[in-house]
Amino acid sequence: MPAYAVLGAQWGDEGKGKIIDFLAGDADIVARFSGGNNAGHTVINDLGDFSLHIIPCGVFRPNVMNVIGNGTVVDPDVLIEEINSLDRAGIDVKGRLIISERAHLIMPYHVILDTLAETSRGITAIGTTGKGIGPAYSDKTSRTGIRAADLFDLGNLRTRLEEVLTFTNAVITKVYGSDPVSLEDLYKKCELWAEMLKPYVGPAGRYVNDTLDRGGNVVLEGAQGILLDLDHGTYPFVTS
User: Same domain, yes or no, for 146 and 173?
Assistant: First the structure.
């Protein structure tokens, strides 16, 4: 039951996409297990040049299942656009992409908070990508995050969003002096996400474990690099 982990030993941009694409030729699963769309894994093949930000690089192999695991944070807008972009290139991911129901979502207010916080630092800015990765992981840790599975219980989700926005909008308006996030607009966006992503969300962890149990090959697709790791990197100039 072999599993291969591909990680960067520097600050990212080590060529992980190329290596993962090569290893995917003998894989049953390629799985993203951490990070979000702050990654950019480049694959060049007969279909063109591709830079994948959240979908695993095994997507170009027709017999490979691609997993977005529970350790990631997923911006649904970015994911949907990436699915559509691949489709326009003739690559259909239906039936070959599974998103963990436990994966946390990057919400629009995470992106807003990320940008506002970075701007407020001025010359001491860390250099965040502004994609909401850090705030999404912060909400996960503080137990206020929204997971992929929550999209399919919209009634309860609305209540959760009301609770989250009470605090989040207070920070956005009173700390940063910016405009609050509209609950109605956010809820409508969640309804759209639920419709678009329903075919892809499922028990990804169980699928990976079952594949390993039967002796299948799994490639674990790392993002960024060791020197950007929160524990082992050049803290605080690291990634979330």
Answer: yes
Domain with 136 in it: 104-196
239 part of a folded domain:
no
Contacts of 167 (CB under 8 A, 6+ apart): 144
Q: For residue 41, indicate whether it is catalytic.
A: yes
13, 153, 185, 210: which is the annotated catalytic residue? 13
53 is catalytic: no
pLDDT in tens, 78-130: 999 999 999 999 999 999 999 999 999 999 999 999 999 888 877 766 667 78
pTM (two decimals): 0.90
Q: CA–CA separation, 136 vs 150, rounded Å?
A: 15
- Residue 157 inside a domain? The answer is yes
Q: One of 28, 41, 114, 150 is an active-site residue; which one?
A: 41
Read off the CATH number of the domain in which 54 is found.
Answer: 3.40.440.10
Coil, strand or helix: which one is 179?
coil
For 167-198, write each residue's pLDDT tens digit.
999 999 999 999 999 999 999 999 999 999 99
